[in-house]
Amino acid sequence: MVWLNFVPAAAALGGTQPTIGEPAPAFTLPTNSGDGEISLRDYRGQWLVVYFYPKDFTSGCTLEARKFQQDLPKYIEINTQILGISADDVDSHAKFCDAEGLKFPLLADTDGAVSKAYGSWLSPYSLRHTYIIDPNGILREKFLGVRPPIHSQEVLDRLDELQVL
């Protein structure tokens, strides 16, 4: 049996992953906060955590969002912003933010175009993947095997390593 073309399931499911060390795929998406639209370029000069998740109000997604919210002051302290992206619409995101007290933006990728660009799409849902983007818009890390209970701390630990390089 030949395994030369073996691709790990987590990566294969969502499609082609962007390359670490290269510019992160650009995006502009509607959101429930601010001016109603957010672009990657809006975050130049700051570190950015972009996390994709399947669905508002589901158990794993709610836990992941709560953990990011709980740690939000730690992210702000290290010049890092958080963006959540799913295929849910802006109205769903507004209700989810209100219900969970989320103070970071959620973006509506209703057609999956941005999720696809990040290799994080399994129609009709975004996959649970996270990406760290540096202040120059360069992709520095990706997390494909996300475990919601500990994920925010994993991201903070990796940011700590990346920001001293």
From TrEMBL:
Keywords noted in UniProt: Antioxidant, Disulfide bond, Oxidoreductase, Peroxidase, Redox-active center
Coiled coil residues, start to end: none
GO BP of this protein: cell redox homeostasis; cellular response to oxidative stress
PROSITE patterns xref list: THIOREDOXIN_2
Root EC class: oxidoreductase
Pfam families found in the cross-reference section: AhpC-TSA
Gene3D superfamilies hit by this protein: Glutaredoxin
UniProt key word Isomerase: no
Annotated GO CC locations: cytoplasm
Catalytic activity: a hydroperoxide + [thioredoxin]-dithiol = an alcohol + [thioredoxin]-disulfide + H2O
EC number, UniProt record: 1.11.1.24
A molecular-function term among this protein's GO annotations: thioredoxin peroxidase activity
Domain Thioredoxin: 18-164
Range of residues in the leader sequence: none
Domain of life of the native organism: Bacteria
CDD domains cross-referenced by the UniProt entry: PRX_BCP (cd03017)
Assembly notes: Monomer.
Function comment: Thiol-specific peroxidase that catalyzes the reduction of hydrogen peroxide and organic hydroperoxides to water and alcohols, respectively. Plays a role in cell protection against oxidative stress by detoxifying peroxides and as sensor of hydrogen peroxide-mediated signaling events.
UniProt record similarity statement: Belongs to the peroxiredoxin family. BCP/PrxQ subfamily.
Protein name: thioredoxin-dependent peroxiredoxin
Lineage: Bacteria, Bacillati, Cyanobacteriota, Cyanophyceae, Oscillatoriophycideae
